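Chain and backbone:
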Amino acid sequence: MGKQQRSIGNQYQFRLEGFEEEEEMAVEKNVRNIDPTLDDGFAPVSQEVFQSIDADAEKAGGAWEEPEEYVGSIGRTMFDTPSSKDNSLTVLLPRESMEKAPSQSLVRIKSRDGRSYLGVVIEGPFAEPDGIRGDSPIVVTTTVKGGIFMPKFHGRVQVEILGEEDESGMLVPPRFRPLPNSPVFALNSCETANVLKLEGDIRLGLAVGHENLEVRIPSDRKSVLPRHVGILGTTGGGKSTTVSGLIYSLQKAGIATVLIDTEGEYTMINEQTTDRTMIAALDRRGLKPDGVQNTHIYHLVGRETTNPGHHPKTSFCIKFDKLSPYLVMELLELNEPQETRYLKAYDITRRVLQDLRISPQAGEDPSRFFELDEMEEGYPQMTLEQIYDIITACAQIIDKAEDGIEFHSKEFRNRKDDVIAAIKRAINADSSKKSEGSLPGVVSSWRALQGKIGRIRRLKIFDNPDAKPLNYRDLTRPGQVSIIDLSDTDSPRINNLVIAEILRGIQEQQDRNYVEAEKAGRQPNRTIVVIEEAHEFLSAERIKQMPVLFQQVARIARRGRKRWLGLVFVTQLPQHLPDEVLGLINNFILHKIADAGVINRLKRSVSGIDESLWSRLPGLAPGQAIVSMAGMTRPLLVAIDPTPCKLRMVD
């Protein structure tokens, strides 16, 4: 602090360096040292005056003491102003209490009318000088000239009211506002955790602005995880750390977790982390490196996994008859002429299978074959090879080249004449015209369809005898972590077909699990499905073109809560997720998002996040996230725990 000299009359000088205690003492000392012979025009105050003042003070009750109801308070509520808003008020703090009310901390306001309120600091604390504006000319001028005019100052915070405390301590919607000059008290970590409802067995991290306040969520409540989670944020924000740490905790809680890994990033989470930065961060929080237990890697037959040394690992194929024909058309992005021909070929294949007694076979119950909901699944025992053969045959018939028809499926290969005859009967079943008359014409459209079906046929991932389909009972076993490694497909279409089949299979299995649990009088197996790169599967453009796919996901989302099936959508491009998908999600973990347009969209979907938190979202550090979970009193800014397990693509 500079030592500025100011003249007082013509008699003496003293320093004006602010109103700090030491400067005030120096001024007083200088005044005492003034020559008593100098005449300054003032007479000294007599001792009787001071005695009279002391006597009056004693009559009034003695020295001032802080009222009991104010003891321990950190500040007072301020009067409302024309700019005041509902559910928000200003609190003034003495200088020594400013550090006790950091942003996002909780406070209790004991209104002078006897009511008690809980609130959260949403703005501040800001330092304001006493009795003068912080941008007043005298402050600005002395600062610019190299001196510092430092008056005493106080703190100011803006508090949002969470609710009014009733007699039992429960929070209820507030009916009134706290009165001015009501004492404000800071809540400790234990009280804050109770108020915010942060208890649970799954730890996410530590709340920013609080001292060692753990943010936890319960794994056993249907009102939380089965209401689905969105983990959103740009690249480098810490989503992978959050996902792997969440999976680690889910496994510890005995929840079956199915992770659809399109990049092969999580295939080593069974090992503990070796990253030095992560290990140091874990140590600072009293955590240790550890791998996820009971992991099982699954990969498509004929494709590789990014962790070939993992045990166990299993290849699997997709059963074509489990896919709805309408879903197949959507995922293959067929145009309208191709859709018409695909549905015709599908119908012909179904009739041929029935005509040749391939499906249903003798002795099978025919009811399940004729009561199908083809919006949900395909015709039983129909294979991709069979429908490809029928599409090829139809193209040959339209092209008047029946002699060149060849079949590849084992059911048709050795019965060529019977199959061709059955095809013609199927074609003529609803038409009295010549054999090709009821088939959609234009052979080029048939060939284009044949090409699209042929490309996925050559992948040999459907109905492959060298691999079995996924066993969904195993996938929903408590504590099982199933990693579906799709990193070697290089095809979003194939990934989407696989994801659609997995979601359908898990939903059906979870329905069975629920029925079994009800009969046994126990809780059903808890299952969570994590979908990485969710924007590839459920983009806004794709949803418009694929209503069947969205209906399938929406059905799982609606029925998941009762049957304990939750979905976790993870994406680095939240702008591609449609509002329909965001509307299915009740829990959000938001890492850094810089796009203002995306933030504005999220504001319409995520409730309860105040503007001060939204304003922080573009500048969040890696590992920080705004967490909004069902059951929490309000969203929080959280420093997510470092992951204890190994990730393949850590920078």
Q: What stands out?
A: The chain has a mean pLDDT of 87. Residues 492-520 form the longest helix (29 residues). The radius of gyration is 36 Å. The chain is about 35% helix and 20% strand.
